[in-house]
Amino acid sequence: MAKKATTPITHSSIWEAQMAVMQEVSYVQKKGRVGTGKYGYSFAGESDLIAQLRPAMVAHGIVMYPKACEVISTENYETHSGKRASLLLTKRTFVFAHTTSGTLCEIEVFGEASDGGDKRASKAMTLAKKYALREFFLIETGDDPDEVISSRGEENVGYVQRAVRALESCSSVDELDGKLGSILSFDGAGFSEDQADDIKGKALELKGRMLNG
Asked: Which residues of the chain have pLDDT under 50?
């Protein structure tokens, strides 16, 4: 049975409606889970954000839709286990429009994802939409990518290679364990199970070298 339509709360602009949503939704709990044990991690996924934000957006007359997508770069690479994968970096523009005043606001976000099959584009699209929602409404989830991996540097490589370089820079077992946990908890990287296994395998290799002197 369809829900009865409701009239949006009156606002004078998209920014006034945006503020109203921000007052109602400030934090989204991490309900997603990847992996098990010490290096499993939780994350706030697209569905979690939409579940929390959609009722408030409807109530205050805000609609969101994609306007443009630009492919920044693509790269094929080989994982440490010898499997082929591909990395895609895109820039997407989303519009947040206010239904009663006709005012709108555009926001640009990047979406980056890698995959060994044909899912890199859909992953990048999902991440871009998620971060557009988070940025526009300033939603807190506890994720901080700056704690994990530094900038791309001179070489345009995949997340796995950058993660390995971060692990190789560690000088102690404690630092290695801490860095590994941070890397695997960064949901923006979109690691597949094989990629996570590659990273953990490299960490075990490095730990063995440290312990054996």
From this structure: 38-39, 144-157
Per-residue pLDDT at 191:
67
- What pLDDT, on the 0 to 100 scale, is given for residue 188? 54
CA–CA separation, 112 and 139 (whole Å)? 20
C-alpha 121/C-alpha 87 separation (Å) is: 9
Of the candidates 190, 183, 144, 141, the one whose C-alpha atom is nearest the C-alpha of residue 30 is 141
3-state secondary structure of 189: helix
Compute the distance between CA of residue 176 and CA of residue 159 in angstroms, rounded to an integer: 17
Backbone angles phi, psi at 13, to 5 degrees: -160, 170
Report the candidate in 156, 72, 71, 79 with the shortest Cα–Cα distance to residue 116: 79
Per-residue b/e over 83-109, b at no fewer than 16 CB within 10 Å?
A: eebbbbbbebebbbbbebbebebebeb
* Predicted TM-score (pTM) above 0.85: no
Q: Supply the pLDDT for residue 54.
A: 95
Contact 75, 86 (CB under 8 A): yes
Alpha carbon 172 to its chain's center: 29
